[in-house]
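Sample entry follows:

:::
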Amino acid sequence: PIPLIEEFGADPLRYFLMREMAFGQDAHYSEEALVDRVNTDLANDLGNLLSRLLKMIEDFCGGRIPGGVARSDVAHETTGLAAAAQRAVAEYRRAFDECRFHEGIAAIMGLVGETNRHIVRWEPWTLAKDPAKRALLDQVLWDAGEAIRIAALALSPVMPAASQEIWRQLGCAGEVGAQNASSLGWGGLATGQTVQRGAALFPRIDKAAYFASA
């Protein structure tokens, strides 16, 4: 695996092996599938989601996690993502308990997809233009941040370094790997903590250029 780690990094390779292959069974491997997983799941879905969210928190909330779960006046409007997270975590835990790691990871990446759709649905950039929508804007952004926090924690056994970087960029204290299963519950993202947006977590691979030089 050393040349692959040097080319793609350890965490993307770990993710690919655990997501693409059923533990304990024969599996097919190709570099094309690896590049596709990195670009689709990690660069497009997870990495881009984190970058977009933190940019909006910087632009609309002064770089701090806005008030969220305690805002009962608006929380009922955005409960869909909380319910999706609870379903994803339940499936993740069942799958990991039974060594169906690829299915558990798929459940968490499904939550990432739901979070992307949550942002598209609520359009925080539009809510930010209307002072009367301030509470709803805060809730929408908090919900997205909480879903990413849960995803980082759930993926930490598979991508420890990347998950810790997501944890850090969200402004969460301590080590993601030091958390326990109770931290997967909805409501753990602290209001007011400062986000720390960094470079792209998973740079997109130019597939044509990569295989042309291979």
Observations:
- The chain has a mean pLDDT of 93.
- Residues 41 and 109 are 7 Å apart (CA to CA).
- The chain is about 65% helix and 0% strand.
- The first helix runs from residue 2 to 8.
